[in-house]
Amino acid sequence: MRVADAGDAVMGRLVAEYGPEGALGQVRRGHLDTSFVEELSRGRGRAPDLARMLSGWRARLLVADPVADLTEGHDLGARLIMPGDLEWPTQLDDLGPERPFGLWLHGDADLRFSCLRSVAVVGSRAATPYGTHVAAEFGAALSEAGWTVISGGAHGIDAAAHRGALTGEARTIAVLACGADIAYPAANQDLFAAIRARGVVVSESPMGVRPTRLRFLVRNRLIAALSRGTVVVEAAVRSGALNTAGHAVALRRHLAAVPGPVTSENSAGCHRLIRRAEAVCVTSAREVVELVGAVGDDLAPEPRGPVLPRDALDEDTRKVLEAVPARGGTGPATIALDAGLDLMTTLACLGALAAAGYVERAPRGWRIRRPTPIP
Q1: For residue 189, what is the domain's CATH number?
Q2: Measuring CA to CA, which residue among 209, 262, 251, 217 is closest to residue 122?
Q3: Verdict on whether the full-model pTM lies above 0.85
Q4: For residue 272, with 0-12 CB atoms within 10 Å meaning exposed, 13-18 middle and 19 or more buried, which class applies?
C-alpha cells in the first residue's frame, strides 16, 4: 500500500500472480520475472514503462515503514483489512487488477455486512438547494428502508446524503481519497465523527496521505464497487460524479440519475446519462430500492393522484354523474340517453347520488349539487 499507487493495475496483476511477498521480492531485487513482462507486453493497448514503474516502487519501498503504519492506525482506532479477511467485501474482487491491496477502516460498522444492501449516492460538490434537499431525502428514506448509504464525504451532495442517512436506521459509509486520519474537507470533521459512530470511514491510502485530484478519481471506483447501485443526484457535464457513474457501468452495477430543471447546468450530467440510456431515471428512494433490490421483494408502488370520493362509485353511477349538468337542470330521460343507460337504472343511480350529496333536484330536473357556502 505504500509502494504502489491506489488502483495500480500493474502491481495488482503482479500481486495476483506472485502474491504480496513475491511481488515485493521482485521489487527489492529490481527485476521482474521475464514471464510476467512478456505477459504484459502481449496485452492490448500501450505497454507500461516497467523500468520507470519499478524504479518508483523501489524508491518508495526503501522508506516504507509498515510497523509504524500499523501502530499509527491502531493508536487512531482504525483497523486494516485485507482480501480474504472476514470483513472484506468480496464485490471488490470485481475490480480485477485494480482491486485495493487493503483498506483502512475507522468506525464501528462491519464493512462487509453493511455493504450487502447498499446504495451509493453521489453528485456535485457545488450543489444547489434542490440537489442537497433531494440527496438528504434519498439518504434518509434509504436508511429508513434498511439500505446503507455510501458516498465520498465531500461537500454538497455527498454530505447531504450522509446527513440524511444518519437520521435513519441503517449505516452510512464514507470512502475517502486520503488517509483515514485526515478529515477532508476539514469543515466536515463533525460529520466524519458522526459517520464513525454510526457507520465506517474507508480509505485505501495509508495514514498521512493527502488528497489529490487523481486520488479522488481513483477513489470513485471503490464507491461504485462497494454498492449494489449508484444514484447520481445532481451533476454537471464535467462533474466527478460522472466518473463514479462510469465505474458503475463498467462494473455492471445499477445506475440511476435524478432529473433536475432543464435550465440547470448542475443537472446537465444527469440528463445526459438518462438521454443516453446509461442511467435509469428515478424520482424517489422507493424507485431506487426497486432498481437495486431483490426482484419481486422491493417493488415501488406506482405513483397515483389523490383518491377522490367519486372513485368509489360503480361504473353506471359514474356515467350518470357525468351526464348530470352543473347548471340549470335536465330530466332523467335525457340523462339516461347521455349516459347510455336505461331509465330505471338511471333513476336508481340518481337516487343514490342524491343521497350521497352529489346531485340535487332542480326546477328543470337534476343538476350537480352546489357546495354550501361557508359562513
Answers
A1: 3.40.50.450
A2: 217
A3: no
A4: middle
